[in-house]
Amino acid sequence: xxxxxxxxxSMRYPTQAGGFSRWDVKTRRAFFNLRREVGPExxxxxxxxxxxxxxxxxxxFGQRLGENTTGPAFRLAFIHESxxxxxxxxxxxxxxxxxxxxxxxxxxxxxxxxxDIVQHYISAICRFNLPYLPEEGIETLTKYLLKTxxxxxxxxxxxxxxxxxxxxxxxxxxxxxxxLLAVIxxxxxxxxxxxxxxxxxxxxxxxxxxxxxDELWGLKNPMSVVADILQREGRxxxxxxxxxxAGDATPEAIFLIGVYSDKKLIGQSFGETLLxxxxxxxxxxxxxxxxxxxxxxxxxxxxxxxxxxxxxxxxTPNLRxxxxxxxxxxxxxxxxxxxxxxxxxQQPPKKAQxxxx
Length: 357
Hints:
By secondary structure, this protein is mainly alpha-helical. Helices cover about 50% and strands about 10% of the residues. It has 16 helices and five strands. It has helices spanning about 5, 20-40, 55-65, 70-75, 80-95, 110-130, 135-145, 150-155, 175-190, 195-205, 215, 220-230, 275-290, 300-305, 310-315, 325-335, and strands at about 15, 20, 240-245, 255-260, 265-270. The chain has a three-stranded antiparallel sheet, with helices on one face. Strands 1-2 form a two-stranded antiparallel ribbon. A hairpin with a 7-residue loop joins strand 3 (about 240-245) and strand 4. Helix 6 (about 110-130) crosses helix 7 (about 135-145), helix 6 (about 110-130) crosses helix 9 and helix 6 (about 110-130) crosses helix 10. The longest helix has 22 residues, at about 110-130. Residues about 5-10 and about 345-350 have low confidence and may be disordered.
């Protein structure tokens, strides 16, 4: 007797096949083929869903960053100029009276204010951390942090994409970058410039931690730069000497070149050929001069960086490469430090008070 009949059932009813009912397998296959014919789901903004609450999203954005974003300036910071133009055109199509005379406020003024704050603060904090780096290097670091892709990357990761009101979806890189600068400008307007500078320190300056300063600068003809610096300091011209070599007759040859001045080793580096090793040794010498070696003191953040006297470092640039000498750099650094408040590690220890009983 059939097993199905023995249990009082019939094969007409759905049965399990590989964890799914037979009708379920066919339904899933039909849905899959239909989705493949129609194509992927179109990209849509979150505000089309009924559970979207812009006020709640804006409040949550501020809480994630530890800032108060309930002011009108922050609402304006997320209105891009493309959205304002789109809104005017939409009202013209609806034949609303005086639509051509309407003026919608956008983030333009806040963006300009934020860009000014970012540029001045980044220059100041870079000069504080790298006082021996020539001003050309400081300008390179500042331009790098103000690049559209760097600003857009930070803006995207702090969650501005869903809050931006713009004409395109997803927002362009330039839109994301402009919005980040506008948020910084709004933060300065609502909470003060100091608070905006701390925001730049925490979210933007930290992008320099994984950047090689020397590769970013890309100084050309390093040996001639070393010779000019030694000449201004009254020292002997640089001399290169072959210190070590290995594997000359192999594809993996290696040479160690040292740079000497006044019989003192001022830099050394390896290279696949003698010319490459000499250039790398010159670059290593400049790293020693400018205090940008990998073993240098790391950049300061947190409480120590927040205590920096920004106007002192912002208004006084570092020495230019054409005028750079170590003695002049030390003199400029000493004049800056005399205007700096004592940090915690620089303050003398407090004496214990003995209570008289």
